[in-house]
Amino acid sequence: MSNESLDPRIRRLDLEHVKNGVQPTNSHWITFEVFHQEKRGRQAIHVGIVHAPSPEIALMFAKEQYARRKSTSNLWVVKSSEVFTFASEDEDIFETTPDKTFREPGFYKVRDRIEAYKNKHS
Amino acid sequence: MYGNTFMTAEEAKQMDQTQDNPQKLIAFEARIERGEKIEPGDWMPVDYRKQLIRMIEQHAHSEIVGALPEGTWITRSPGFKRKLALIAKVQDEIGHGQLLYSACETLGKTREEMLDDLLSGKSKYSNVFNYPAKTWADMAVIGFLVDGAAIVNQVINSKGSYGPYCRALERICFEESFHLKQGHDNFVFLATGTNVQREMVQEALNRWYIPLLHFFGPSDKTSVHSEKLMKWKIKLATNDDMRNQFLDQYVPKIREVGLTLPDEKLKKNLETNKWEFSDPDWDEFYRVVNGDGPCNKERLEVRRFAEEQGRWVRQALVNPQDKYVTPFA
Amino acid sequence: MKNLILKMADDALIIGHRNSEWTGIGPLLEEDIAFSSMSQDKIGHAWALYRILNEELGGEDPDKAAFNRSVKDFTCCHLVEYPIGEFDFSLVRHFLMDKAEFHRYDLLLQSSFLPLVNLAKKVKGEIKYHVMHADTWMQQLANGNEESKARIQSALNLVYPIAFSLFEKQDDEQAVIEQKVFVGEDVLKSIWVDDIANRIKEFGLTIPSSIDSSAHLGGRKGYHTDHLEPLLKEMTEVFAIDPNAEW
Predict the structure, then answer these.
(1) What is the mean pLDDT of chain B?
(2) Considering the entire predicted model, what is its pTM?
(3) In chain A, how many domains are there?
(4) Using one digit for the tens of pLDDT, what is the confidence trace for B13-71?
(5) From A17, A80, A86, residue closest to B325, measured CB to CB
(6) How many domains does chain C have?
(7) Measured by CB atoms within 10 angstroms of the end CB, which terminus of chain B is less buried, N or C?
(8) How far does C192 lie from chain A, in Å, by closest CA?
(9) A13 in a domain, yes or no?
(10) Domain B9-304: what homologous superfamily?
(11) What ipTM was predicted for this assembly?
């Protein structure tokens, strides 16, 4: 049961037990996308994924991984297979949005006209 | 088109069969040239996928194997502050492994496949973790300098082209800043402590000097580096540049507390602005890469043991209906 | 009252120390992380309790109390002393112990000793999560497959009697009850027994029928299992190089 490790924890393990090699792993769990809400009132933001056999365990894994260091008010998990997106080659459908300046407040500039009006009528 | 873009590993591989499309390659390279990131659903050249998988996977393995040398002292940390810091730090490394495996999965290789390749020896991890942590002072040297070296590497890589890897690295770098600080704190306490403590940290430093020089890989003069990797922003700095940056940042911090590095030739050439040092034994580097380092055998045996001993837990919760789904991002 | 706080501190330190051993070698990466987090919480509780002893009741410096005390002076219970074993053992111990911790701190919210009330308020959420973690895993593994169910049941048979060591009374307990610092181990034990029985039933497991926990008592008086002395020797190995140095 003993081995030569410098780590006392490892010395307590029966490493001989697995000397004969390892069977390949074939356990697949569900993939969940994780969303993190830093505090009340904020958006939940996508932060990564976990693999878990159930939503309950997925939430615990998400807490351990994504709420270990940052403030958190809540976490969401959503099965990756339930998330729908556009295909990446269709990104061009959004291309002209920034050109539509008539949707931006800065497009509307009437100060000059007001000043001109005032000058004329004062 | 509305679609559900999650992929099975098979589908991800099939996607690459369009690689010969030169127009797609031009568009892909132009995107990288513009400084945009590549995302999992994008077309990418076969070699890009392959090289990224290799790199991210090795990085992930390095995190979980790296937890073992530091774990050596986890039950022996002196005092509450060090005990909590070390547990938290080693825990983060495991967390980083998980994040990196997830990032790599978006390229179409499952975590299980990656772990199997680690255990069979097919896939590598950083050499530095094949060295033993002989004394408590190794925790200071690893926490401060090995993590310091890793951060140099990771900060550079976080400017790379693959979105999921960059995101994982940003999170990792944020967390590692605590590792570095706690390592430095430990290092300074030992260096400025009793004679016994000071000797302990000097001795550890002497042992880690060569593995630290090896950390960034062989010199640019001898190593083959791919133009493609640079062009595709998988690799962003040369080994020598990273090594030089590391020495620039850390040698002064070692010397300011009166400790030394065991190399008389180590000095900065003020004309070239580059550090000069005795060439470390690269044969040793290759021996360790090929499995013949002081701890290679133990590290893999422990990982195999953990996998085997824990198999029943994972298997008990497998539902045959749950099909593997490649993560999204 | 010092005895009550000291044994709570010792329990938390030793179980935290034990569970930190999973960091890097657990059955899956996520559980390495979980056990590690909970062990940090527990060591944090121990630190806070030694600090209360130090600051309010004239006890030693927390580092000295934890890292420089002889095995006879420790008053942890036998339950926390055993090695981590396999995941089934560690999980069942965690389940049984954290239920007790949860109710103990819940009862301490009514304590007449303010520092304990404040600590109980502070750690409430952490321990609630420890219980949630244990319950979720117990539920899943007890209903996983034949092997996992058998393993969890047999770990329960082994650990359940030892868990009664948590409620071993100390000599000054009557005074602690009269001063309304704590309602006493018997009250805690009966709440725990009921709670555990209900959960075990929900999991579809059975509580071992005849229990003799007498062999597991003595920890509160300094009589420990053979596991504690080597644990302390290992834990204090570096600290003992120079207990007066700053580490």
Answers:
(1) 90
(2) 0.93
(3) 1
(4) 554 454 568 889 999 999 999 999 999 989 999 889 999 999 999 999 999 999 999 99
(5) A80
(6) 1
(7) N
(8) 24
(9) no
(10) Ferritin, core subunit, four-helix bundle (1.20.1260.10)
(11) 0.96
